[in-house]
From TrEMBL:
Reactions this protein catalyses: prephenate + S-adenosyl-L-methionine = carboxy-S-adenosyl-L-methionine + 3-phenylpyruvate + H2O
Enzyme Commission no: 2.1.3.-
Keywords, in A-Z order: Methyltransferase, S-adenosyl-L-methionine, Transferase
Source organism (scientific name): Mariprofundus micogutta
Official protein name in the record: Carboxy-S-adenosyl-L-methionine synthase
Binding site for S-adenosyl-L-methionine: Y54, G79, C80, S81, D104, N105, D128, I129, N143, R210
Membership in a protein family: Belongs to the class I-like SAM-binding methyltransferase superfamily. Cx-SAM synthase family.
Record bears the keyword S-adenosyl-L-methionine: yes
Amino acid sequence: MASNQFQLLLFSFRFHGMARDAIYTSDIHSNGFSFDDKVASVFADMIGRSVPGYGQTLQMVELLAHQYAQEDSNLYDLGCSLGAATMALSRGAAGKTCSVIGVDNSPAMVERCQQTLKDEPVVIRCQDILDTEIENASVVVLNFVLQFVDKSARLNLLSKICHGLKPGGVLILSEKIAFDDADENRQQIGLHEAFKRAQGYSDMEISRKRTALENVLVPETLATHHARLKQAGFSTSNTWFQCFNFSSLIAIK
Ligand SMILES: Nc1ncnc2c1ncn2[C@@H]1O[C@H](C[S@+](CC[C@H]([NH3+])C(=O)[O-])CC(=O)[O-])[C@@H](O)[C@H]1O
Ligand SMILES: O=C(O)C(=O)Cc1ccccc1
Protein backbone atom coordinates (compact mmCIF):
# COMPACT_ATOMS: atom_id res chain seq x y z
CA MET A 1 0.00 0.00 0.00
CA ALA A 2 1.44 3.37 -0.92
CA SER A 3 1.96 5.30 2.28
CA ASN A 4 -0.62 7.89 1.24
CA GLN A 5 -3.15 5.04 0.96
CA PHE A 6 -2.25 3.87 4.46
CA GLN A 7 -2.69 7.44 5.67
CA LEU A 8 -6.08 7.40 3.94
CA LEU A 9 -7.04 4.20 5.77
CA LEU A 10 -5.99 5.69 9.10
CA PHE A 11 -7.90 8.84 8.17
CA SER A 12 -10.98 6.79 7.32
CA PHE A 13 -10.80 5.02 10.71
CA ARG A 14 -10.49 8.43 12.38
CA PHE A 15 -13.26 9.87 10.24
CA HIS A 16 -15.57 7.01 11.12
CA GLY A 17 -15.04 7.75 14.77
CA MET A 18 -11.72 6.04 15.59
CA ALA A 19 -11.50 6.74 19.27
CA ARG A 20 -8.32 7.12 21.29
CA ASP A 21 -7.41 4.05 23.31
CA ALA A 22 -7.98 4.95 26.98
CA ILE A 23 -9.01 1.42 28.07
CA TYR A 24 -6.30 0.99 30.72
CA THR A 25 -6.69 4.47 32.22
CA SER A 26 -9.22 2.77 34.50
CA ASP A 27 -8.87 -0.65 36.10
CA ILE A 28 -12.24 -2.10 35.08
CA HIS A 29 -10.49 -4.01 32.30
CA SER A 30 -7.78 -5.48 34.49
CA ASN A 31 -9.04 -9.08 34.32
CA GLY A 32 -7.60 -10.30 31.04
CA PHE A 33 -7.54 -9.03 27.49
CA SER A 34 -10.12 -9.88 24.84
CA PHE A 35 -11.07 -8.56 21.43
CA ASP A 36 -14.46 -7.31 22.60
CA ASP A 37 -16.45 -4.31 21.47
CA LYS A 38 -14.50 -1.94 23.72
CA VAL A 39 -11.15 -2.99 22.21
CA ALA A 40 -12.53 -3.08 18.65
CA SER A 41 -13.82 0.48 18.98
CA VAL A 42 -10.30 1.85 19.71
CA PHE A 43 -8.22 -0.82 17.95
CA ALA A 44 -6.79 1.25 15.08
CA ASP A 45 -5.42 3.76 17.57
CA MET A 46 -4.32 1.02 20.00
CA ILE A 47 -2.25 -0.99 17.52
CA GLY A 48 -0.76 2.09 15.87
CA ARG A 49 0.49 3.43 19.24
CA SER A 50 1.49 0.01 20.61
CA VAL A 51 3.37 -1.78 17.83
CA PRO A 52 6.52 -0.06 16.61
CA GLY A 53 6.70 -0.26 12.81
CA TYR A 54 3.06 -1.30 12.38
CA GLY A 55 2.40 1.18 9.52
CA GLN A 56 5.59 0.13 7.73
CA THR A 57 4.65 -3.53 8.13
CA LEU A 58 1.38 -2.83 6.30
CA GLN A 59 3.22 -1.07 3.48
CA MET A 60 5.48 -4.11 3.11
CA VAL A 61 2.47 -6.47 3.09
CA GLU A 62 1.26 -4.56 0.06
CA LEU A 63 4.70 -4.75 -1.56
CA LEU A 64 5.05 -8.47 -0.83
CA ALA A 65 1.53 -9.15 -2.14
CA HIS A 66 2.46 -7.32 -5.33
CA GLN A 67 5.57 -9.50 -5.60
CA TYR A 68 4.04 -12.90 -4.72
CA ALA A 69 0.31 -12.83 -5.58
CA GLN A 70 -0.32 -15.34 -8.36
CA GLU A 71 -3.10 -15.10 -10.96
CA ASP A 72 -6.30 -17.00 -10.08
CA SER A 73 -5.25 -17.65 -6.49
CA ASN A 74 -6.55 -16.84 -2.99
CA LEU A 75 -4.96 -14.37 -0.58
CA TYR A 76 -5.80 -14.82 3.11
CA ASP A 77 -5.49 -12.35 5.99
CA LEU A 78 -5.88 -14.54 9.09
CA GLY A 79 -6.84 -12.54 12.19
CA CYS A 80 -7.72 -9.49 10.11
CA SER A 81 -9.14 -7.31 12.94
CA LEU A 82 -10.31 -4.10 11.22
CA GLY A 83 -8.89 -5.17 7.84
CA ALA A 84 -5.76 -3.04 7.54
CA ALA A 85 -3.62 -5.90 6.16
CA THR A 86 -6.60 -7.22 4.13
CA MET A 87 -6.67 -3.85 2.40
CA ALA A 88 -2.88 -3.99 1.86
CA LEU A 89 -3.29 -7.44 0.22
CA SER A 90 -6.10 -6.14 -1.98
CA ARG A 91 -4.02 -3.14 -3.10
CA GLY A 92 -0.93 -5.27 -3.69
CA ALA A 93 -2.83 -7.71 -5.89
CA ALA A 94 -4.70 -5.02 -7.86
CA GLY A 95 -4.87 -5.98 -11.53
CA LYS A 96 -4.58 -9.72 -10.80
CA THR A 97 -7.56 -12.07 -10.63
CA CYS A 98 -7.16 -12.92 -6.95
CA SER A 99 -9.73 -13.47 -4.21
CA VAL A 100 -8.89 -11.67 -0.96
CA ILE A 101 -10.32 -13.26 2.19
CA GLY A 102 -10.08 -11.79 5.70
CA VAL A 103 -10.91 -13.97 8.72
CA ASP A 104 -11.34 -13.09 12.39
CA ASN A 105 -13.23 -14.75 15.24
CA SER A 106 -14.13 -11.52 17.05
CA PRO A 107 -17.69 -10.49 16.04
CA ALA A 108 -16.97 -6.90 17.16
CA MET A 109 -13.92 -6.69 14.86
CA VAL A 110 -15.65 -8.41 11.92
CA GLU A 111 -18.68 -6.13 12.09
CA ARG A 112 -16.49 -3.02 11.93
CA CYS A 113 -14.21 -4.53 9.31
CA GLN A 114 -17.11 -5.43 7.00
CA GLN A 115 -18.47 -1.91 7.35
CA THR A 116 -15.10 -0.23 6.67
CA LEU A 117 -14.26 -2.44 3.66
CA LYS A 118 -17.78 -2.66 2.22
CA ASP A 119 -16.68 -1.11 -1.09
CA GLU A 120 -13.46 -3.14 -1.40
CA PRO A 121 -13.28 -6.36 -3.45
CA VAL A 122 -12.69 -8.53 -0.37
CA VAL A 123 -14.66 -11.08 1.66
CA ILE A 124 -14.56 -10.89 5.47
CA ARG A 125 -15.56 -13.96 7.49
CA CYS A 126 -16.25 -14.42 11.18
CA GLN A 127 -14.48 -17.70 11.90
CA ASP A 128 -11.75 -19.26 14.04
CA ILE A 129 -8.63 -19.40 11.85
CA LEU A 130 -8.01 -22.92 13.22
CA ASP A 131 -11.17 -23.93 11.28
CA THR A 132 -10.41 -21.96 8.10
CA GLU A 133 -9.78 -24.03 5.01
CA ILE A 134 -6.74 -22.72 3.12
CA GLU A 135 -6.76 -23.61 -0.55
CA ASN A 136 -5.17 -22.43 -3.79
CA ALA A 137 -3.33 -19.71 -1.85
CA SER A 138 -0.39 -17.62 -3.03
CA VAL A 139 -0.13 -15.22 -0.05
CA VAL A 140 -1.22 -15.81 3.56
CA VAL A 141 -0.82 -13.13 6.25
CA LEU A 142 -0.65 -13.69 10.01
CA ASN A 143 -0.02 -10.11 11.19
CA PHE A 144 0.44 -10.25 15.01
CA VAL A 145 -2.02 -13.14 15.36
CA LEU A 146 -0.09 -16.41 15.95
CA GLN A 147 0.97 -14.93 19.31
CA PHE A 148 -2.68 -15.28 20.48
CA VAL A 149 -3.07 -18.89 19.31
CA ASP A 150 -2.48 -21.61 21.91
CA LYS A 151 1.15 -22.75 21.60
CA SER A 152 0.06 -26.35 21.16
CA ALA A 153 -2.00 -25.41 18.06
CA ARG A 154 0.63 -23.30 16.29
CA LEU A 155 2.42 -26.04 14.35
CA ASN A 156 -0.83 -27.54 13.03
CA LEU A 157 -2.00 -24.10 11.87
CA LEU A 158 1.27 -23.40 10.02
CA SER A 159 1.26 -26.91 8.47
CA LYS A 160 -2.30 -26.34 7.23
CA ILE A 161 -1.27 -22.99 5.73
CA CYS A 162 1.77 -24.50 4.03
CA HIS A 163 -0.37 -27.33 2.66
CA GLY A 164 -2.88 -24.82 1.20
CA LEU A 165 -0.20 -22.70 -0.51
CA LYS A 166 0.68 -23.14 -4.17
CA PRO A 167 4.34 -23.78 -5.03
CA GLY A 168 6.17 -20.45 -4.63
CA GLY A 169 3.43 -19.16 -2.30
CA VAL A 170 4.36 -17.27 0.85
CA LEU A 171 3.36 -16.78 4.47
CA ILE A 172 3.96 -13.31 5.91
CA LEU A 173 4.27 -13.68 9.69
CA SER A 174 4.54 -10.75 12.11
CA GLU A 175 4.92 -11.35 15.84
CA LYS A 176 5.85 -9.87 19.17
CA ILE A 177 9.00 -11.83 20.00
CA ALA A 178 10.94 -13.02 23.04
CA PHE A 179 14.72 -13.33 23.44
CA ASP A 180 16.65 -16.25 24.96
CA ASP A 181 19.08 -13.91 26.67
CA ALA A 182 17.37 -12.51 29.78
CA ASP A 183 19.25 -9.18 29.64
CA GLU A 184 18.38 -8.66 25.99
CA ASN A 185 14.75 -9.61 26.67
CA ARG A 186 14.56 -7.04 29.47
CA GLN A 187 16.22 -4.37 27.33
CA GLN A 188 13.90 -4.91 24.34
CA ILE A 189 10.78 -4.90 26.55
CA GLY A 190 12.08 -1.69 28.15
CA LEU A 191 12.53 -0.09 24.72
CA HIS A 192 9.02 -1.16 23.67
CA GLU A 193 7.61 0.38 26.83
CA ALA A 194 9.58 3.58 26.15
CA PHE A 195 7.98 3.59 22.68
CA LYS A 196 4.51 3.27 24.23
CA ARG A 197 5.29 6.07 26.69
CA ALA A 198 6.41 8.28 23.78
CA GLN A 199 3.08 7.46 22.10
CA GLY A 200 1.21 8.94 25.07
CA TYR A 201 0.49 5.88 27.24
CA SER A 202 1.07 6.37 30.98
CA ASP A 203 3.11 3.98 33.15
CA MET A 204 -0.19 2.87 34.74
CA GLU A 205 -1.77 2.05 31.36
CA ILE A 206 1.37 0.19 30.26
CA SER A 207 1.51 -1.81 33.46
CA ARG A 208 -2.22 -2.72 33.46
CA LYS A 209 -2.10 -3.86 29.83
CA ARG A 210 1.07 -5.89 30.53
CA THR A 211 -0.86 -7.75 33.25
CA ALA A 212 -3.94 -8.19 31.03
CA LEU A 213 -1.85 -9.71 28.22
CA GLU A 214 -0.09 -12.26 30.46
CA ASN A 215 -0.83 -15.80 29.19
CA VAL A 216 -2.99 -14.27 26.41
CA LEU A 217 -0.27 -12.94 24.11
CA VAL A 218 2.53 -15.52 24.32
CA PRO A 219 5.66 -14.47 22.39
CA GLU A 220 8.37 -16.87 21.24
CA THR A 221 11.93 -16.39 19.96
CA LEU A 222 12.77 -15.89 16.29
CA ALA A 223 14.70 -19.19 16.43
CA THR A 224 11.53 -21.00 17.56
CA HIS A 225 9.50 -19.38 14.76
CA HIS A 226 12.03 -20.27 12.05
CA ALA A 227 12.36 -23.87 13.32
CA ARG A 228 8.56 -24.32 13.41
CA LEU A 229 8.14 -22.89 9.89
CA LYS A 230 10.64 -25.46 8.66
CA GLN A 231 8.83 -28.23 10.53
CA ALA A 232 5.54 -27.06 8.98
CA GLY A 233 6.96 -27.69 5.51
CA PHE A 234 8.22 -24.29 4.33
CA SER A 235 11.42 -24.49 2.30
CA THR A 236 12.85 -21.17 3.53
CA SER A 237 12.07 -18.48 6.07
CA ASN A 238 13.74 -15.11 6.54
CA THR A 239 13.36 -12.18 8.92
CA TRP A 240 12.72 -8.96 6.97
CA PHE A 241 11.87 -6.55 9.79
CA GLN A 242 12.58 -6.07 13.47
CA CYS A 243 12.01 -3.14 15.79
CA PHE A 244 12.60 -3.91 19.47
CA ASN A 245 10.51 -7.00 20.35
CA PHE A 246 8.41 -6.97 17.17
CA SER A 247 9.44 -8.76 14.00
CA SER A 248 8.18 -9.84 10.57
CA LEU A 249 9.18 -12.97 8.65
CA ILE A 250 8.50 -14.36 5.22
CA ALA A 251 8.31 -18.11 4.63
CA ILE A 252 8.25 -19.57 1.13
CA LYS A 253 6.70 -22.95 0.38
N1 LIG B 1 -8.11 -18.25 16.64
C1 LIG B 1 -8.41 -17.08 16.06
N2 LIG B 1 -9.21 -17.06 14.98
C2 LIG B 1 -9.52 -15.90 14.37
N3 LIG B 1 -9.06 -14.69 14.78
C3 LIG B 1 -8.24 -14.68 15.85
C4 LIG B 1 -7.88 -15.86 16.53
N4 LIG B 1 -7.07 -15.52 17.57
C5 LIG B 1 -6.94 -14.18 17.52
N5 LIG B 1 -7.66 -13.67 16.50
C6 LIG B 1 -7.77 -12.26 16.09
O1 LIG B 1 -6.47 -11.80 15.81
C7 LIG B 1 -6.48 -10.38 15.92
C8 LIG B 1 -5.17 -9.97 16.54
S1 LIG B 1 -4.73 -8.32 16.15
C9 LIG B 1 -4.35 -8.50 14.41
C10 LIG B 1 -4.03 -7.21 13.71
C11 LIG B 1 -4.32 -7.26 12.24
N6 LIG B 1 -3.83 -8.50 11.62
C12 LIG B 1 -3.73 -6.07 11.54
O2 LIG B 1 -2.75 -6.22 10.82
O3 LIG B 1 -4.27 -4.97 11.78
C13 LIG B 1 -3.12 -8.12 16.79
C14 LIG B 1 -3.03 -7.55 18.12
O4 LIG B 1 -4.06 -7.24 18.74
O5 LIG B 1 -1.82 -7.40 18.65
C15 LIG B 1 -7.73 -10.01 16.71
O6 LIG B 1 -8.64 -9.30 15.92
C16 LIG B 1 -8.29 -11.34 17.17
O7 LIG B 1 -9.71 -11.36 17.24
O1 LIG C 1 0.51 -3.19 23.62
C1 LIG C 1 1.29 -4.14 23.71
O2 LIG C 1 1.97 -4.27 24.75
C2 LIG C 1 1.47 -5.09 22.66
O3 LIG C 1 2.17 -6.03 22.83
C3 LIG C 1 0.81 -4.90 21.33
C4 LIG C 1 -0.64 -5.13 21.28
C5 LIG C 1 -1.38 -4.34 20.43
C6 LIG C 1 -2.75 -4.50 20.35
C7 LIG C 1 -3.37 -5.47 21.13
C8 LIG C 1 -2.63 -6.27 21.96
C9 LIG C 1 -1.26 -6.11 22.04
